[in-house]
Every structure is written in structure tokens, then in C-alpha cells.
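Work package 3, deliverable 3.1, input record:
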Amino acid sequence: MRCAVCKKKAEVYLPHHNLALCREDFIRFFHKRIKKAVDDFKMFSEEDKLLVAVSGGKDSLSLWDSLLKMGYNADGLFIHLGIGDFSKRAFEIVKEFSENRKAELIIINIKDEFGGKTLPELVETTKGVPCKVCGKIKRYFFDRIALKENYDVLLTGHNLDDEAAFLLGNIFNWNIEYLAKQSPALPEEDGFKKKAKPLIYLTEREIAIYSFFNNIKYNELSCPFSKKAKSHLYKESLHQMELSLKGLRIKFYKGFLRNRKLFEKAEKNYTLKPCKICGYPTSSEICGVCKIKIKAEVSEGEK
Amino acid sequence: MRCAVCKKKAEVYLPHHNLALCREDFIRFFHKRIKKAVDDFKMFSEEDKLLVAVSGGKDSLSLWDSLLKMGYNADGLFIHLGIGDFSKRAFEIVKEFSENRKAELIIINIKDEFGGKTLPELVETTKGVPCKVCGKIKRYFFDRIALKENYDVLLTGHNLDDEAAFLLGNIFNWNIEYLAKQSPALPEEDGFKKKAKPLIYLTEREIAIYSFFNNIKYNELSCPFSKKAKSHLYKESLHQMELSLKGLRIKFYKGFLRNRKLFEKAEKNYTLKPCKICGYPTSSEICGVCKIKIKAEVSEGEK
């Protein structure tokens, strides 16, 4: 098979684009897909100061790598969750990545923020659902650091598979409010910087190929909590269907973006105000993360 | 395992209701589920003259059987499509079913209506997609006969699996107009009688058990055209997900019914008028079935 661009030997075939490419043209294709998402949703410009939330996985590292190569001003933010070997390995990888590229990396250690407790310990003491507690804490520090360090846009590595699976889950459960909010880019608001997902037009497989072609080392360990996540099931179902219906996910997701306004009237019927303890925008008196802190300390006291 | 109602030995376990039942109580449960759908969507009353569209499959025959046992005034309508052994077998089964129950059966033979042509021949000469041509023709005769013979409501055997798969397909493709129209009951309109789907709260598996418990013989042959239908793929995916997420389909479908109004503003921006040839309501000058007739004759003349 020949590269559709330069006619050299192709190294990759992309079924839903019906496109064969050599290594160099695949990398160019990958960066173009990012640029397209950035332009389609006016995510950021070349002058903006970007903060990429990096987990040590291939998605966020491929995003950071791409942005640096594309000439953007992009720093990284890593939240050390303290989930045993998984977090240790993630930290090593992200640190090495940033050092090799002489890129700025901000590190937040959960233990420093929650009186010495790791994420598994917080889950245990608050009796929370791991992925919910983790998501809440990560979102909190993403927002806080972007604001405090005055970045223009906070970026996450959500890809097409993630967004399509999230969409399917929200539709199965008719979470209209989530559907109204699910967007490739969210504008700046009181207490929040602008947020964007530049990888929405790229699949997990395309990102895996990109990281392989660019020798991006990523955390090969999976989070021990993630096995139970329903999102895996939705993702797997979409993968299975995609085998017979090429392009299903991208059509499904793009169709949603075109029709998202249908859900918007259900959006946000509450107002956010600063948390009484930390100032983070919240719909109640005290924000979710401060509640975790309180719960964790109470449980501690009870022992 | 014991029957949840009478404590006798259970013969069936229904995972998404977490319910074990004996044969007699399962049959009562089955009829109650039908009654619940009938009441929830005001489908029909005991005084109404009902017409059940029967294909020879287990869904429509279980529906007809149930309605007769529940004391409703229900006749059958069978469209003989002329699809080789599949249609022959379907016809034998439906005829025997109606004779055994001394129930009224109306038979429409495609060949009598389309100048001697069977469905496969119509598909061939019109170069149509089989399931689309078939669906158009069946809907046409369902509507025409219900109107001509003055039935109050036309009933079809669509079950929960069908409706959930149809819903998923319409969502994947963002067919907003179809989503706006997908309903367990459609009111009477100019040129159409009322239509309803009393099996929406029952799964394929529950219907298979009902037909087994009641010795309902059904067509064991599959339509040779049906293999290519995308709806099978959606149905299979939903089945797979249901294995891990019990009750997924019923929650998904009921959630849709609660939120259907979101799609309604996109509904019907065209008006129907009688077909110039046959009088059937259509959005163009000539209805889809008359167009098939014209096309089939043109192709015939060209030979």
C-alpha cells in the first residue's frame, strides 16, 4: 500500500478515513486534525499560554508533544494521586518527558493537599466511588492551577473514543444537563479558565500510532480502579460496532455537536458562587473537594 | 428457585425485573405488561376493533394470542410477500394459528397487488433496498386495510429490543425527525387509523418464553434479506451491554419517552395530501407504493 500523499510505502491505514499514509505524512495528518479541532471550536491562538493536564497516558502526552512540535506555548500539569505503582510510574514518565523537551511541568501531590492521604485512602475514608472522587479532585486542581498561574486555556487529552463513549453513556441515562454541557471547548467563566479538548477528532488507535512513531513512552500500567468503569463498556461496544460500521463514532459525535442545541434549554438552572472555604465555584456552600477534606478528617478523628 | 407470586417451583427468571415466576404467573405477568403499555399510552379500550399486523414471527403471534386471551376483539392482517419458502412457511403458520383460534384473518397477496410480482422481484426491478421497499409496502397495506375495513387501532408486534435498537440507530445518525415520531402510540390522522405497539415493555426473550409456554408455533425461517440490516447490529450491541448493565434497554427506552419532547420541535415540517393515484397520504404527488408500481412496470416494459 502506498502513502496517499507522497506515494512512498505506507506504514498505516486509517479505515474510517480510507487513507493510507507513510510515517511522516501520518504525523502531519495528526497535527492537522488537532489544528482542525482548534480552529473549528476556536480553542486557542498561538499567543495563548496553554496548560496541558497530563496523566502519563498516551493521550495527554501525545497532545503535549504535538502542541510543542506545532510551536505552541504549552506547559504541563501533573496530579500525583498516590495510587501505588500506577502513580509512581506515571510520575517518572511525565518527569522524563518534560525534562527531555525542556518543557515546564507543574506537579501537585495529593498527599500535600489532603493531610498526607493518597487517593485510595481518600476513597476509603470518604466511602466514595473511586472514579468520581478522582475526577472531582483532578478537575479542581486543573481549574485552580490554570486560574492561579494565569494560563489562558486548560487542555485535556480526551479523544474521540472517550467523547463518543461519554456521549453514549449520557444518552443511555438521558443526562440532559451533561449533554448540554458536553463540548469540545468551554468558555472562560467566573472562577474558571477556558477549557478545550484538541484530540476530539482523533481515535485511540491513531493516538497509539502517533506515540509509537514519535517514541513517546507512556504509562503501560492501568489504573487499578478503572476496571469497574462503565465507560469501558460503552467504549468497547462502540469499537465493536465500528468494525462493521466504519466511521460510526465520528459521525455520531459530529452529529451530536450539530444537534447539541436540542439539549441546551435544560442547561444550568443553578448559579455558582465561591466555596466558603477555598473560593472554588460551587453550587452549594462548600465545594466537593473541601467536603472530601472535611470527611477525610472526620473519619480520621473517629478511628 | 421459587415463584415470587405463588411460591411454587419457578420456571423462568427475569434478570432485569429480578423476578422468578412459575409458568402460570409468567403468563399473567406477560399480559399485565401488555395491559400496562395499553394503559400508559391510552392505546385502546375493550370496545375497540383491533387489527394486528401478523408476520408469522413470535412477536406478532404472541401479541395476537395475548389479546385474544385477554378478551379483546382482535383480527389479524397478513401480507404475503412472496419471499420463497420464508413467506410460504409464514403463511401456513398464520393460517393455522387463526383457524385454531377461530379468529378473523385478512390476507393481502403482494402478487395480486403488483401485477404478479413478488417482493424480491419488486426489489430487483426497482433496484431498491429490500428492507426499505418491504417496510414501505407493509406500512401501506397496514394503513389502507385498517382504514378500509374500519378498524379502530392497528397494532404491531414491536418489542423492547426492537424499539431500543431503532432508537439507538436514530440517535447514532441523529435522525431528529424519526426521534420525534418514534412513539408507542400514534393518534388517528387524516387517512390513517390510530397505531400502537403493545409489546414495548417486553423483551425478545420474554416473548420467546411466552410463545414456548403457550405452544405458539412460529416461523423458524429468517427472512433472507434481513441479514444485512444494521438494526441487528444495534440489537446485538444492546444485548451485549445488557449482560453487564441489567435493565439498560428499558431504562434507555423509558428515559427516551420521558425526554421525547426535546426532539418534537423538529417534527413534521411538511403536509400530507392524498396520492393522486390511490389516495394514500403522501408528502409528494404520488405515494411511495404507487411509485414502486410505476417503476416495476417501466422496467417490465423495457425488457
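The CA atoms of residues 79 and 108 of chain B lie 5 Å apart.
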